[in-house]
Amino acid sequence: MTTITGVSVHDVRFPTAAAGDGSDSINKGDYSATYVELATDGPHTGTGFTFTNGRGNEITCAAVRALAPAIEGRTLDELFGDPLTFLRSVTTDVQLRWIGPEKGALHMATGALVNAVWDLRAKEAGKPLWQLLAEMPTEELVAQVDFRHIRDAITPEEAAAILDKGRVGLEDRLAQLRSEGFPSYTTSVGWLGYPDDKVRALTRQAYAEGWRAMKMKVGGPIEDDVRRARIIREEIGPDALLMMDANQIWDVDEAIANMARLAESDPYWIEEPTHPDDVLGHARIQQAVSPVRVATGEVAANRVIFKQLLQAGAIRVMQIDACRVAGVPEVLAELLMAAKFGVPVCPHSGGVGLCELVQHLAIFDYLRVGTSLEGRMVEYVDHLHEHFTDPVRTRDGRYLVPEQPGYSSDLKPESIAEFRFPEGPAWQ
Amino acid sequence: MTTITGVSVHDVRFPTAAAGDGSDSINKGDYSATYVELATDGPHTGTGFTFTNGRGNEITCAAVRALAPAIEGRTLDELFGDPLTFLRSVTTDVQLRWIGPEKGALHMATGALVNAVWDLRAKEAGKPLWQLLAEMPTEELVAQVDFRHIRDAITPEEAAAILDKGRVGLEDRLAQLRSEGFPSYTTSVGWLGYPDDKVRALTRQAYAEGWRAMKMKVGGPIEDDVRRARIIREEIGPDALLMMDANQIWDVDEAIANMARLAESDPYWIEEPTHPDDVLGHARIQQAVSPVRVATGEVAANRVIFKQLLQAGAIRVMQIDACRVAGVPEVLAELLMAAKFGVPVCPHSGGVGLCELVQHLAIFDYLRVGTSLEGRMVEYVDHLHEHFTDPVRTRDGRYLVPEQPGYSSDLKPESIAEFRFPEGPAWQ
Q1: What positions does the domain Mandelate racemase/muconate lactonizing enzyme C-terminal occupy (chains A, B) (predicted)?
Q2: I want to staple B385 with a disulfide (CB 3.0 to 4.6 A). Which of A111, A335, B56, B391 is the partner?
Q3: Would you say residue B156 lies in a domain?
């Protein structure tokens, strides 16, 4: 019976902004982590984080400290013995929720904390998180989900039916993944900060490495976007997939007009075409740009936004994020809704450690929830993996199955020391 | 040419939770303010705040500190010479926005800071904020609004037409307000924390004081809600208005079912029937409970949520909040959209100082935007006004027009000292 004896949080920032990596139409970030460590009276330390973009990481750190009393001194048995009470203690605290509710800095901090608890549980079980989840009894999985406010889209009974059905063929799917890996795509070729010749060179290199799906950023001057799309399409030929990502910059009508221009390069999806809260706007865009898919979700605030995107037919690709929402249990709610509505999940990744996290979620989704690889790809960005003790491994454009216990969220102590903000040597 | 020489922020909390005031189905708060003071090289200090519910106020304070560099050292002429650049410098900073975007703790802090700048401007002009806005040229008002992401609902040209039309009869409306005051309703009778006999006594007292519109909290056990509604309806007779507020607790179908039960007490509106992000859910509820009005907005994250609530016909009463969104300019966008869609605005109030703020917005709305009092009421809660230097004044259930320069947001220095958290004497 392991007790969480203390919660510590580290403000860790990597100076990526200067390099133009991660630059898009609306963000220019120093990739950062609000990094949580759970001390215990047992052999393991639970870790979790939320990804931020630099400035403001101290705010999500403050939010973790505000939430920490909900789990300090609690045992894992207590927390998981009544998972809904545990979850609501950090999502709907009678005072804290006012500064959300279930959104923004507070909810991101909730994600970091909840994920750390799940990492601890997976480590105690001696299993990678995807395996812990995939082997969990249906009843226990359903008990993790807060159905309040999503019951009009999915009921506990429907969730149970999906998860029961997911048991069929699970071993075969796992064997397949272990042999072939999980499909992915790369976002490293087309950041807005890169000049044309760098885009062409990176595209050529990625294609040579085996990538057959690549994402470019759009949302600059439309002529530039059209030109860069042509460069990439020239390099990858007609069969490889080209995804586009506007990072929320466009108005609804602007998105429709610009996608009419970009259609010549045969985009597979348009990601974040407009404001992330605009369910009705995404629905209008999806209708207008079809057969191009609308994809969004990396900054979708919570399961209620995802619920509506699905109900409105506003997306044909659902992009979950591992740590913007309230961690594993809220992601589980999102995966279940996607399965019910028949929309493939392609997790958002990149940043700091998002690849490390979402591989577990994508694998669990395939094994037990969505049970298909059709239209499924995990984003891959080749940044900052060297700071993790259990970094992602890829081969020929596919993620290999992680096998170490936990959620692959442990940062190396020397990386924390080096990049701690503002006192770490990297920031002097 | 006044320069903002420094930004300071105070964590001010009032221990209201113990009294049961402000308790509802989901909140139990120590009413608090993230209180901002702008030091200048001139005679005035700008003040602004965002209201929070106790725990977490340190997080919004941290967010103010993160945003402060955007205005420190700037002159009012610079900020208002290019208002959209000023606004976006605090709503879409390339790093900070990630922990919103435009929502939650960061956006609330933005509201506090932006409101402080507007308070300073109004003080410099020697006018109450409502008057500064009501007299402003149409072109300058339109220039304050960020139309990005709402252009599909309202264009700058449509906004200008509304504001130009609002000039007609403005003097008459102002004379009327100065003579009669602005209609309001009281929320002090039916908090969930109050027993039945206290509800009856408070209702009787409020009716005797002249209130003809009162709000009760619902969202407890439905039998209790039905019984309490009957008590209030008995006391106020058939003609006075009874509003109900569920504070987001219900699922969509639960809201519809419960309102069918509560219909016997002839509610005027049902406020926050479900999750504040659920545009589609509110639309379904509005359709089902009509002719009862659906009202929401006090925790609507931003203008994009309001846009959709209006586009979807999901609300028949729009409840703006003065400081959850990015202050005066974002509220202006919301008022303009409400006018275009023909939905009356009834500002959210109560908390700490919300009455003081929203009276300016409601008066401006009547004078220049909505230009009607039909269906318009400002919430009134009789809490904590004694801590403000220019508190609201009411007579016979109506707000009197504030006449002092500024946004009525100055807390008394002795109140700040007494209730400062955690070091103030009130918290020892």
Answers
A1: 196-292
A2: B391
A3: no
